Amino acid sequence: MPLVPMRQILDEAAKGGYGVGAFNVNNMEQIQAIMQAANDTNSPVIIQASRGALKYSKMIYLKKLMEAAAEEFPHIPVAMHLDHGNSLETCKEAIALGFTSVMMDGSLGEDGKTPNSYEQNVAVTLAVVEYAHPLGVTVEGELGCLGGIEDGHGAGLSDAQVQDHLTDPAQAEDFVAKTKLDALAVAIGTSHGAYKSGRKDPVTGEMLPPALAMERIHEIHKRMPNCHMVMHGSSSVPKELVDIINQYGGNMPDTFGIPIEQIQDGIKHGVRKVNVDTDSRLAITGAIRKVFAEKPEKFDPRDYLKPAREAAYEVYVARMKAFGQAGHAGDYKPMTLEDAKALYR
């Protein structure tokens, strides 16, 4: 099976009322774990690479790994997505290499950190749509800014500043109409990384989950029931994974992620793509630290990368089941980019 346009995966998810995990990758082991999880749960899936990942592993290597994944599991619909593209040129490079979907993060400037004006966001997102759609490629855009910085992108806003950069539902309606994008990433208080909250219980001092503006998702869905929304920064940062890291020499206090229940609420109200990166990183790091601590004589990378891959696999299986995509890989005949060209015409 060739890689499929992400638009089809999102359209089918909307029909079925489920969400689809979009998992970030940097290496072979992550791709293998994702595809094995998708196969074992019979799930369509989105595999994405950020600009940081592409700098680390180079676009061409990830492309070939993705092609191998599609060849090994021809019955699994899988989209190859550029996460947080920072310019039209970056998106063009990804499309030329065979990515079936790109994100133009026009909420930020080309440095990936400085917020753009609304007008700048509309202009650059529209430019990517006008380039990508005639080629059958899906486009995701973002309105509003996320907190946190990961892989060199993110506004790095504080909890208080994030509240001033949440997605405005009325503006979202205008943004989608003007850009004609396929998927809208919304800012509702999530952030990149493992430290998604600065909130603490005033009595116990324990960390609390971030205060998410879920009502914004509800309102956007009410205004645009056919709009495919995207939740970025949606790793749940499970305590048990952090505990393994800390048990074997790590130092990660005060971590907190997004409760699965809130993600599921978003899925009920139009969220179709759920971005997860940190959770697999935590699983991989914990597994590697465990091997190093318990078997210090080991030096073969396979001795620690195999359990790391297995730990990541468990995360992917759990998320695919929680988001509802499990069991839906065979629901539809996969489209090609040629088919998508006709859809956009």
Explain what this protein looks like in three dimensions.
The chain is of the alpha/beta class and 345 residues long. The protein has a single domain, classed as Aldolase class I (TIM Barrel), CATH 3.20.20.70. 47% of the residues lie in helices and 12% in strands. It is built from 14 helices and 8 strands. Strands 1-2-3-4-5-6-7-8 form an 8-stranded parallel β-barrel, surrounded by 10 helices. The radius of gyration is 19 Å and the shape is globular. The chain starts with 5 loop residues before the first helix and ends with a helix.
Provide the CATH top-level class.
Answer: Alpha Beta
Write the element-wise H/E pattern from the N-terminal end onward: HEHEHHEHEHEHHEHEHHEHHH
Describe the largest sheet: 8 strands, parallel, barrel
Rounded to the nearest angstrom, the distance between the terminal CA atoms is 24 Å
Tell me which CATH architecture applies here.
Answer: Alpha-Beta Barrel
Structural domains: how many: 1
Proportion of residues in β-strands: 5-15%
